[in-house]
C-alpha cells in the first residue's frame, strides 16, 4: 500500500463525514480536476466507492482501521505517506536496514528517513541494529499493519483472485494459480533448465515478466517452501541444490540447504525426506547424489 499525503488526507476527510466532492476539494486544497483525479485513483485502488458524487470507504477491515487512525492521529498522515506503510508492514518482526532494502527494494536513504521520523514518535524502536514496530506504545498501528499484511498476503490486483501469494512488494510478486496468468513461469513450473520436468496441478508465476536465472528460480522454490510444506517439493529443491551447489553458494545459510547437508550425512530430520527418498527421486532425472 503506497498512498500519497493527499490521498491519506482524502481518506481522513471521508471518515470525518465530509464525503461530497466539494467538501473533499476544500479540505485537501486541490483544484476540481485534481480532486476528481485523486478520487478516481482511490476508486481504482478499491479504497473508496463513488455513489452519486458521494464518497464512501470500501468495507474492508484494514481500510476502516487506517481511516480511524488518520482521524485520531494527525501526525500519521506524514508517517504513512508514500513508502511509509510498506516499510512499517515489514516490521512486525525486527529487521536490519539491509533486510528492509532486500524486502522493499527501496533505497537506503528512503528507508532511514522514514525510520527516523517513526523513531521520533516512538512508533519504531531500535535494538541491536534491528528495527521493529513499538507494539507497546502504538498497539492500534500494530493491529492495523497485521490486518493489512493478512489482506495483502491473500489479495493483489496484479493476479487472479484464486492465487496463492508467496512473496510480494511494490515491484515483484511470486504466486501460484490453477488459471492461466500473466507472468514468468518460475520455481516448480520452470525446472527444465535444471534437467527436471514436473507435472503440477497449478502453475507458479513471477512478476515482472523476464528471463529468470537459475539462482532466481531456486530462490523462488525456497520462498514457496516457507508457505507450502510439501515433502515432494522439498525433495526436488534439495536435488536441484545438490546438482548446482557450487553455483548456489549464496544460499548456504538457508534452512533447507543446511538440512540437506545434514541429510546427506545420514541424519533424519522431521518433516524432511530421507536420503533414500532423495536418491530414489534423483535417479528419475539421471542425477547422481
Summary tags:
289 residues; Arc Repressor Mutant, subunit A; 3 domains; 13 helices; elongated
Quick synopsis:
The protein has about 290 residues and is α+β, with helices and mostly antiparallel strands. Helices cover about 45% and strands about 10% of the residues.
Explain what the structure shows:
The protein is 47% helix and 11% strand. With 289 residues, it is α+β, with helices and mostly antiparallel strands. It folds into three domains: 68 residues, Arc Repressor Mutant, subunit A, CATH 1.10.10.10; 69 residues, Arc Repressor Mutant, subunit A (Orthogonal Bundle), CATH 1.10.10.10; 121 residues, no CATH class. The chain has a four-stranded antiparallel β-sheet, covered by helices on one side. A two-stranded antiparallel ribbon has the order 1-2. The protein has a two-stranded antiparallel ribbon with strand order 3-4. Strand 5 and strand 6 form a beta hairpin. Helix 1 packs across helix 4 and helix 4 runs antiparallel to helix 9.
Radius of gyration: 23 Å
Oligomer: single chain
Principal-axes geometry comes out as elongated
The end-to-end span amounts to 45 Å
Beta content: 5-15%
Provide the number of structural domains.
3
Largest sheet report: 4 strands, antiparallel
H/E element sequence: HHHEEHHHHHEEHEEEEHHHH
Query: pLDDT below 50 for ≥5 consecutive residues: which ranges?
Result: none
Structural class: alpha+beta
Give the tally of β-strands: 8
Placed side by side, the strands forming the largest sheet appear as 5-6-8-7
Overall pLDDT score: 93
- Individual helix count: 13
Helix content: 40-55%
Amino acid at each position: 500500500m503506497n498512498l500519497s499525503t493527499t490521498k491519506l488526507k482524502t481518506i481522513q476527510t471521508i471518515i470525518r463525514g465530509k464525503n461530497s466532492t466539494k467538501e473533499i476539494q476544500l479540505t485537501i486544497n486541490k483544484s476540481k480536476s485534481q480532486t476528481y483525479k485523486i478520487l478516481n485513483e482511490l476508486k481504482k485502488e478499491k479504497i473508496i466507492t463513488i455513489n452519486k458524487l458521494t464518497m464512501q470507504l470500501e468495507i474492508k477491515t484494514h481500510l476502516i482501521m487506517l481511516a480511524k487512525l488518520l482521524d485520531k492521529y494527525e501526525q500519521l498522515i506524514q508517517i504513512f505517506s508514500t513508502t511509509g506503510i510498506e516499510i512499517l508492514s515489514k516490521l512486525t518482526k525486527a529487521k536490519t536496514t539491509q533486510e528492509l532494502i532486500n524486502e522493499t527494494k527501496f533505497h537506503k536513504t528512503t528507508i532511514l528517513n522514514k525510520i527516523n521520523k517513526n523513531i521520533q514518535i516512538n512508533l519504531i524502536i531500535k535494538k541491536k541494529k534491528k528495527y521493529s514496530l513499538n507494539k507497546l506504545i502504538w498497539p492500534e498501528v500494530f493491529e492495523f499493519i497485521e490486518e493489512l499484511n493478512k489482506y495483502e498476503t491473500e489479495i493483489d490486483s496484479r493476479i487472479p483472485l484464486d492465487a496463492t501469494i508467496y512473496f510480494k512488494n511494490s515491484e515483484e510478486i511470486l504466486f501460484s494459480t490453477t488459471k492461466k496468468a500473466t507472468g514468468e513461469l518460475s520455481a516448480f513450473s520452470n525446472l527444465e533448465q535444471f534437467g527436471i520436468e514436473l507435472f503440477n496441478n497449478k502453475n507458479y508465476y513471477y512478476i515482472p515478466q523476464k528471463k529468470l536465472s537459475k539462482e532466481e528460480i531456486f530462490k523462488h522454490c525456497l520462498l514457496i517452501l516457507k508457505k507450502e510444506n510439501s515433502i515432494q517439493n522439498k525433495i526436488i529443491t534439495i536435488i536441484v541444490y545438490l546438482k548446482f551447489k557450487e553455483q548456489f553458494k549464496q544460499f548456504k545459510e538457508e534452512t533447507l540447504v543446511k538440512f540437506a547437508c545434514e541429510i546427506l550425512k545420514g541424519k533424519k530430520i522431521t518433516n524432511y525426506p530421507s536420503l533414500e527418498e532423495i536418491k530414489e527421486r534423483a535417479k528419475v532425472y539421471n542425477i547422481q547424489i
